[in-house]
Amino acid sequence: MTMANGIKAAKEMVRTASWTKKDLLGLRELSVEEIRLILKTAESFREISLRPIKKVPALRGKTVINLFIEPSTRTRISFELAAQRLTADVINFSAEASSLKKGETLKDTARNLEALNADVIIIRHSATGAPHFLARFLAASVINAGDGAHEHPTQALLDVFTIREKKGRIEGLNVTILGDVLFSRVARSNIWALLKLGARVTLCGPATLVPRVFEQMGCRVTYDVDDAIRDADIINLLRIQHERQRKTAFPSIGEYAGLFGLSKARLARTKPDVLIMHPGPMNRGVEIESSVADGERAVILEQVTNGLAVRMAVLYLVNGGKGPQEFAAG
Ligand code: CP
Fold it and tell me: Which ligand 1 atom sits closest to the C-alpha of 124?
């Protein structure tokens, strides 16, 4: 098959693919066509945020509950705004002020939310598999907003959306993920998405945080930062996930910053058109120098902007939406 025919066939698959899943639990279980369908649907939603009245009635009458049992700034607010833009009713569950504090189980909590006729429950939890557990007994759609070190599917979707927007493609690109890979759900979801879409993925960081077992997924592993970043089209930086580490994986933050942090000097040894990405929250001066985070190659805030369109697309699809749509201006 020629490259032109391949692109035509992929476009045709997106046109004909439809969403059949009740939940979005991870990218490992999604097909290439399903990932492309979400990205295509997100494209059609992005324009809505540029309108004077940023709302469409796609989820009118639906109830979306943000069940965040771990802290979040970007994901929680982005899902809340996405649901509001689709005219859903949105409830933000506050774990600290909830009956979880009185010993109620996650299962009972979720069943009570469903008894209030929730259509979608978006869950972030420190335990791997918490969204999958809920999805097994809830009729409501469950969206994984990050479970332990396992997956963070909408983060990876907004990352590949941003890469595609900036580079025009994913296939054939060299993507380096630099930092604490072992404890990162962002890394795992990115690896699934990037490899499925045809990118080459290199992982780099301290050996204690980047085990060679990731090679079995199809990634290249190196502990030499200059080797990892030299040919990269994208460098995606990860913070140290202190909240998930039970013992110290490296001698000091200062040493980590010196050996693995992306400094201006290191950036000078990369391709001139490399994109710098970070899922946030950033630890400035550790994995990324401020001048790099705020520099012209960084697309970190554009990732956040694109997250809104991606989450609108996911909410729309799990609620029965059939794919890219055109909504009349509100
Ligand atoms: N990227 C990300 O998940 O950020 P939050 O923890 O702020 O949601």
Answer: 8
Q: Is 141 helix (H, G, I), strand (E, B) or coil?
A: strand
Residue range 76-96: mean pLDDT, rounded: 96
280 lines ligand 1 (CB under 6 A): yes
Closest alpha carbon to 287 in 185, 192, 206? 206
Mutational pocket test of ligand 1: of 147, 155, 311, the residue with most ligand atoms within 8 Å of the beta carbon: 155
CA dist 127 and 145 (Å) reads 12
Please give the Cα distance from 215 to 219 (Å, whole number).
Answer: 5
Question: What global pTM score does this model have?
Answer: 0.92
CA–CA gap between residue 6 and residue 36 (Å, rounded) = 14
Quick one: DSSP state of residue 172? T
Mean pLDDT value of segment 74-89 = 98
Q: Are 266 and 225 in contact (CB under 8 A)?
A: yes
